Amino acid sequence: MATFKPTFPKNFYWGGATAANQIEGAFDKDGKGLSAADFVEYIPKEERTKDNAMEITSEQIRKTLSGESTGRFPKREGVDFYHRYKEDIALLAEMGFTAFRLSIHWSRIFPNGYDEEPNEAGLAFYDRVFDELAKYNIEPIVTLSHYETPYGLTEKYNGWAGREVIDHFVRYAETVFTRYKDKVKFWISFNEINVITLSPFTGGGIVSDREENPVQTKYQALHHQFVASALVTKRLHEINPEGKMGCMLARMSHYANTPNPEDVLKAQKDNQDNLFFTDVHARGEYPKYMERFFIENDIKIIKETGDDEIIKQYPVDYITISYYMSMLSSSAPEGERTDGNLMNSLKNPYLEASDWGWQIDPVGLRIVLNDMYDRYRLPIFIVENGLGAYDKVEEDGSIHDTYRIDYLRKHIEQMKEAIGDGVELLGYTSWGPIDLVSMSTSEMSKRYGYVYVDKDDDGNGTLDRKRKDSFYWYKKVIASNGEEL
Q1: Which end of the chain is more exposed for a tag (fewer CB within 10 A), N or C?
Q2: Which family does the UniProt entry place this protein in (predicted)?
Q3: Architecture, CATH, for domain 13-479
Q4: Closest Cα partner for 224 from 238, 205, 246?
């Protein structure tokens, strides 16, 4: 048998990914309004009472706005990228980044979400960021909505539960498409759009206790996002014919727990539940298998005339995913479970787990890439992947994160194999190249970066940046286009 050695294409994008609400800080500077992320309070691990602490109640919002809450809101602080973006981008350039995924904070541009005119100070900030990236020939990959629904839209419409938000989102998108048409080519409509069904406040600014039927509401809100995504894809192509719109899925790949056909069927259904979102975005229609799900769960999607046609006519140009782990499906889910928050699963005895209970499965990434490319025949961009772990700063200031290097190396090896299998893979932006506030727990100790940020879970620290061992390793990976791992 001949030896086949896959390689990364010469134009492959290498970089890292962030979200505005997790890095920027400056939550009340230069005209920015409040967003959903600004209401997420830090809860120490020992005080958490459930896996998912991201949902916010009406009472929590009242206490936050009235000043009764005495807690910390780390996403308001981030890691001060707002003032340190030049320093941070220089570090990315030193590693050799050719792409950087970031999000625009919607409430920096339209402070309430429904404002008639955009906030010039917010637009000017991202002009400066994009210009700084261009100085180093780093391609921006820009997410329009990354868990940052303006609070004004929650207050007025209960977030994406209100169909009116579609028009406000389209106006926001048109504003930034026009402003940055010569600076940004790659766009993503909604980060991990499937999260709206797991955490409606995170994914759509929806306060569930305001709704009589929260399950109905979250799928109706999702429909509004599907329509909005199609409309902004249309407008992007009109404003900038060179622009590319992607969707984004938190890929939760499921294996059958045993060869029992009931387990295999359960895994198939779980995978369909996850791929439903990209089925709509890429194929342009609701898949038939969801009809049964909607009937069995008494969900009735209210569509306006033309919705289906809009979704069909304007599918996405490429697909983006986050991939951190795989999961197990069982028809009789008994047994030891992982410690993950949104992605809790039966434990797979063949896999190791991270400090936060996320099962590490590099080969699973190859499986996911092959399955999704076979299903859609669209280019794929891995825009999140990485290891959240505790890091120790040695007395000499060094940080020996060999565990992170090992995780990333194994996943990059499987990406290369997937390319050899025929998958059209555009690029790889690992999650959190500079340590940032955790989305799910608002911790700083759950670190992903190549660059260490001196800040702890209580908000203490200098915010100084330090290069970890993985910084120098990733620099070699990029310089060799994935050959030196």
Answers
A1: N
A2: Belongs to the glycosyl hydrolase 1 family.
A3: Alpha-Beta Barrel (3.20)
A4: 205
> Residue 96 CB: number of other CB atoms within 10 A?
17
Closest CA to 481 of 91, 3, 4, 11: 11
Q: Which residues are catalytic?
A: 384
- CA-CA distance, 363 to 358, in Å (whole number)? 15
Contact between residue 349 and residue 356 where contact means Cβ atoms under 8 Å apart:
no
Q: Which helix (H) or strand (E) holds 290?
A: helix 289-296
Q: Where are the domains of the chain?
A: 13-479
φ, ψ dihedrals at 432, nearest 5°: 60, 60
Structure tokens at 112: 């309430």
CA distances in angstroms from 35 to 112, 121, 325, 461, listed in the order given: 8, 17, 29, 25
Query: How far apart, in whole angstroms, are the C-alpha atoms of residue 142 and residue 127?
Result: 13
CA distance 331 to 350: 20
Structure tokens at 247: 């969707």
Closest listed residue to residue 304, CA positions, set 224, 225, 232: 224
- State the pairing for strand pair 359-360/352-353: antiparallel
pLDDT mean for each 10 residues of the chain (485 residues): 88 98 97 96 75 78 92 95 98 98 98 98 98 98 98 98 98 98 98 96 96 96 98 98 98 96 96 98 98 96 98 98 95 64 74 89 98 98 97 97 98 98 98 95 94 97 98 98 97
d(CA 266, CA 257): 9
Rg, the chain, Cα only: 21
